Structure formats: structure tokens, C-alpha cells
Amino acid sequence: MTDDGSNIVVTLSVPFPSRREAEIAFNVLRIDTEPKRSFIEKSFKLIDNQLLVEFNGQQAKNVRVGVTSFFDSLILCCETLDLFGPAVSDEYGHY
Q1: How far apart are CA 14 and CA 33, in angstroms?
Q2: What stretches of 1-95 adopt beta strand conformation (E)?
Q3: Which of 33, 57, 83, 87 is deepest in the core (most CB within 10 A)?
Q4: For residues 95 and 90, what is the distance between their CA atoms, to the nearest angstrom?
Q5: Is 40 exposed, middle or buried (0-12, 13-18, 19+ CB in 10 A)?
């Protein structure tokens, strides 16, 4: 966590067992944008099997709520991945 004087920035690195599982989590979790009233920005990056998430806001309580909400979604995503098992293919071919 850093504080550059005006904004608080929290960066998380979440490792996954495989690149495919990280890609699934990336595509699921980045869809939920923060509402305007949350006063924070959230950005995602995918590097190999690591999901990198950065939260940026002016008030610590807003950033905390955003991080907590993200962890709730991450836990649900991971439980779903565990329930259905590893991905069968290396890419999503539904479309």
C-alpha cells in the first residue's frame, strides 16, 4: 500500500496454479466495475499465472471496502474453479 499524498494505492498479486485459471479469473473479475459512488478505481493485469489488481482512491475507507468486495468475488471465483475442476481446453471457444 502506498500513499502518494493525495491517493492511496493498494496493489495485490494473486497467484493461480495455471495460466488458464488466472485467465478465467481475470475475465470474470474485471467485468465488475466499481460504481461511481465508491470513489475508487480498480485496474487488472494478467502476467503468466499472476492476476495483478490495483486499487486507487483518496480515502482509506473507500479503498478498504473495494478490496474487501474484491476478495469476496475472488473467493467465489476460486470456489467455482475448484468445484468444476481445471479447464479442459487452453482457450474459451464458445463464440
Answers
A1: 19
A2: 2-3, 8-15, 40-47, 50-57
A3: 57
A4: 15
A5: buried
C-alpha cell at 35: 460504481
Provide the grid cell at 67: 478490496
**For each of the chain's 95 residues, which pLDDT tens digit applies?**
665 568 999 999 999 999 999 999 999 999 887 777 778 999 999 999 999 999 999 999 999 999 999 999 999 999 999 998 877 776 665 54
Measured between alpha carbons, how far is 87 from 95 in angstroms, rounded to an integer? Answer: 17
* Amino acid, single-letter form, for residue 58: Q
Give pTM, 2 decimals.
0.82
Residues linked to residue 14 through DSSP beta bridges, in sequence order: 51
Q: Which amino acid is at 27?
A: N
